[in-house]
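Lab notebook, bench 4. Still working through the backlog of constructs that have no structural model yet. Next entry is a single chain of 814 residues. Request: give me the structure tokens for it.
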Amino acid sequence: MAIKKSELYSSIWKGCDELRGGMDASQYKDYVLTLLFVKYVSDKCAGNPDSVLEIPEGGGFSDMVALKNNKDIGNGINIIIGNLAKENNLVGVIDLADFNDPDKLGKGKEMVDRLTNLIAIFQNPDLDFSKNRAEGDDLLGDAYEFLMCHFATESGKSKGQFYTPSEVSRVIAKVVGIRNAASQSETLYDPTCGSGSLLLKAADEAPYGITIYGQEKDNSTAGLARMNMILHGRTGAEIWQDNTLSAPHFMNKEGHGLKTFDFVVANPPFSDKAWSNGLNPAEDEFRRFENGIPPEKNGDYAYLLHILKSMKSTGKAAMILPHGVLFRGNAEGDIRRNLIRKGVIMGIIGLPPNLFYGTGIPACIIVLDKENAASRKGIFMIDASKGYMKDGNKNRLRHQDIRRIVDVFNDQTESERYSRMVPLSEIEANDYNLNIPRYIDSTEPEDLEDIEAHLRGGIPESDIEGLSAYWAVCPGLRDHLFSPAGRPGYCMLRVDPTEIKETIHSNPEFRDYTRDLKKRFDGWMEHNTPVLKGIRAGQNPKELINLISEDLLSVFSDVPLIDRYDIYQYLMAYWADVMQDDIYLITNDGWTEANTLRRIIKKKGEKETDEADIVIGKAKFRAELIPPDLVVARYFGEEKAALDSLKANFEAVSQEMTEMQEESGGEDGLLAAVTSDKGKISKVNVKARLKEIRGDSDAGDEREVLERYLTLIERESETKSAVKSAEEALNTQLLEKYPELSEDEIRTLVVDDKWAASLCSDIRDELDHLSQRLTGRINELADRYETPLPELEDEVEALGAKVDAHLKRMGFSW
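Model written out:
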């Protein structure tokens, strides 16, 4: 049985992180990812005559396993990797990390232990790529992405630029237009490809197996990119190592000009100060700087101009650049003006700050389009700077942020405070400055105070009209909440502030609205339940989530008050947290095998139990697919009720004992003599004290309290034992029930009781947030104008008079 993907990847990272020692993550990644590559190709290719790679004798992962604890392990690993590299023309690609380097891996036994433990991590039986049956699931690609992200996070400033955050890569891949590729002959290029993650994300969007080209300056990073391509099945990708600006590799057929591509994506180094090293821009043989020469110490536009020159006449491109390229002047201003006049800039997407690993500055995505340049009348702009979530010390785009950006850009949808098509005439009037705030005011409207309402009371109707979206859905609700204030333009709150929420929830129109939302969700669930229950081994999980998420967006596309992207986020967040792990198990093992309980060996420092654990004595079993509480709820309701009753009795006895300690446990209390310095009362001490005061006629009250407390101790022990026995009995029944579950029962428990129930709960939460927002705003307005200024002045005057009188009585005067 496979373990969950998230658990697998986390365990790999945890092990790798512990072994890193004093080495920087930007260096350690080369060792870990090389071993991951060797492990993968060994699992997938060994003994497979149709494989693209050959595993030679003495060149596979099993040979590394044989080296564990060998004093010459480092040199041995180098030899194994060298054999694999020579056999498959990968010299200079997978053999860049030196596994026999004592400066990085330690000397003597330290190196032996470190490398032995590192091999052991990848020797984990659960990390067997030969067993991955889910077509298109990309188990290894996800593992590679997970590790690369963590290495980038740990690498620190200026060392994490080998990796573009996957969320940003997904946006670029979806807005560059590669989904419209018409044939396999079309090409994709990244001139600063790093480890290749952006290239691969873009290639995945193409409907055909598009041809991939990439160039990367850093030698080890270029090696990672080549490995990445092989691991993702893109063996035809051509990755070249060299400086793109001073030594571009890809040439046209004639060999004297740059090769041009259908699609280009890039995340160049921000504000590269050394961009012109080895290059004389004024005499560039490729005429890349015809629109102007960038500043000597800032290469942002150098990369943009290289990309522009590398595009076909019908080419499209999308790249990440710092915001400064939109508004900086002098040479950059001249280049920007020339590009705008030529119409090659199709769109600009402003991103949130602190998304990238090498820098915290905000960036933007610039989309270029040569095909429609001549007829371009404007530039489509999006201000997506406010759509993100915090993730540690970085920001991260959520699923809903990515989807909103992509939908709005691809559909060219104008949205207030978010997006608009800006005419070229307006840009020209602003001296070709493309700073997004000049064209899109994304600030929320100011909440203005009403002076007359402060003076005379009442809630301004203009503020109530600000809630018009609610009144459009529930027109009668407004009259239930507000009444005329006796003068035009103002209203009074009709209900007590404490009754606002109840008034909203009891409103028939609001109830109809909530029923409609529930009906829509139920309809979506009913439509997709056969799809979910029909999941089979070998199916592509990513195609599945795309199918059901698209349907969800469609179902909630025209619902007032609720943002469909918020609903979409619930599904995608649940997918990331729970569903994709579940579906990975099912597509890999099938429903029945995925439901197998796994025996857990408690590790040092591990918490005692997990909610998915079934404990009997010292044995612990983990239910990876179906939480035990769902099986209990469906099949053992009576047993659970009896157990809950026993637990309630135990809690009642414990509470009574606590109350007695509070009443009689002080220094002079009747339980003082049996209370330890730590505040504990034991049965032994109580019995000893009772024996001590047996014949004392003056100790009647103490004896009564002690006897009562002793009874509680015995009852607590009895109920605790009964709870334990009932729990073990229920867990034994559970342990027997799991293997008895039929495939249909498993489907029902997973799809209906687990997935559908959780998502339905999220929809209810969204409705609660909706009513809370309306309740909060009405309360805010009511509080703001509750007491008019004259009443406040009268109150201040009355309070002042009281203070004066009090001071006079005390003998003070002024």
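Notes after review: The chain is about 50% helix and 10% strand. Residues 597 and 623 are 5 Å apart (CA to CA). Flag for follow-up if needed.
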